[in-house]
Design a protein that fits this description.
Blueprint: E1 2-8, H1 22-31, E2 34-40, H2 44-55, E3 62-64, H3 72-76, H4 93-99, H5 102-107, E4 117-118, E5 128-132, H6 133-139, H7 147-159, E6 171-173, H8 187-191, E7 198-201, E8 204-207, H9 214-226, H10 241-247, E9 251-256, H11 270-277, E10 283-286, E11 303-306, H12 308-313, H13 315-328, H14 331-338, E12 346-349, E13 352-355, H15 357-363, H16 371-374, E14 388-390, H17 396-406, H18 426-444, H19 450-460, H20 463-479
Parallel strand pairs: 1-2, 1-3, 6-9, 13-14
Antiparallel strand pairs: 3-11, 4-11, 5-9, 5-10, 7-8, 12-13
Length: 481
Amino acid sequence: MQLSMFISGPSASRLPEADQDFVRKAIESKFDVSLKVTYMEPGDAYEAKIAGLLAANDPPDMWLQLSPDGGAKQALDNVLADMTYFVTPNTMPNYFTFWMNEKELKEYQLHNKFVRAPIPYDKKSYRAYYIRKDWLQRLGLAVPGTYQEYIDVLKAFTLGDPDGNGKGDTYGFTVSGNGSSLSLDWPEFVKNGLLFPAYFEKDRLIDMQSDPLVQQTVTDILKVSGGGLVDPDWFLNKGQQHIDKAVQGKAGIVLGNTADFALDANPESIQTRSRQLNPAADWVPFNPFGGKPIRTAPTPDYPFVYSNNAAGLNQEKLKRMTQILDWLAGVEGFLLTHYGLENVHYTRKGNAITLNPDKIEADIVRNGDFLKIWDFFTPNTPDVLGLKVIDPRRSVRDQVILDTITAIPVYEGLGTTLTPPLGVNVEAMRAKQNELLVKMMFSDKSSARWPEYRNILMEQYNGDVIFKHYEEKIRAARRND
């Protein structure tokens, strides 16, 4: 039986030949299937490829739904299978035991249809700003704990020659706008009470991208960018280019979202890469707002979906796919897709997993770093499965960083997943929103017209309808708690 899946993966990763891919071999042998795996970096090209397959009536059996509407349009187009009989505590015991509960799954439904299920997600927050501590020490400054101290550091990093090369070629902060949007990494959002990505307060949803508070936020961003304190090319930076610039010593503050963003144990971290160029580089996490939260509690992100074609023509394919996904959600699949082969890439004693970094580097990282594709179904949170991972590369410094970022408070979560109203195009509203935010930054060079622009979003692009629907969903979820 051939099964096809379309999943996401980093652009730098690739799957090896079948005879070298121990994950593929394990799945195909264990479940008696032949796999056709397509993987692409998330983004417009990914969405276009999926759309093309659907238009050609040749969809994969399973795919990750990464579009901003979470699959709402595909649900309306009737290309998604009803998952009621496939995704249950009986058919996916690992998924429900370790990662998901039935209430959360119910809140994730689209228009009262069970056509998508959330990928297991990390319930901890790692969102934090990072700063070059060695630059601070050179300039005699402390890690900033307030927004004003942050601004003072931006000035020092831009004007004070923190790297000592005498060239005046450094900036305080950098980010990627991808040539199309105002990144949500800017601290000015939090300064003005806009937490990532949204929160509920006084019976109202505060959406960080469209709230009235965006007006002062844009004013503040214009002030720091106009003052020459940030990377002048931030808007044109794409993907991780801003991180590359930070690694190269062009900027001293960036935002990180992952646990291993600056760990010594991560060979691809900003810390490891920076030290390859400058052994003195020292990135440390900080919160420019003291003990205040900078985001809300994480919620389920993107879903996996099944093809309605497969459900109609051969349900056995989807049953087998469900078995595979549940295996990935269990201990055996988790260990294989995150760390490799037992007694080769790690050893196990009870629930203690000791990694062999040299073998991982030789067999996995240098072979396309292919586990970064196969680990698509679960976050790297072994503690959820009762496992303790021992990485010989992890330093005392790493533990301090982990303790610091997990201690940053988070605001109460929404309690539900925000799904759009039936037949309303949220993507169109967000696209217009981004267009207007960029217009204020580069054409208007002022936020004065934000009330007018916001009215356009609310009245002409269904913003009022969308956010009213979201608020009703949040209230209903909280009543049911």
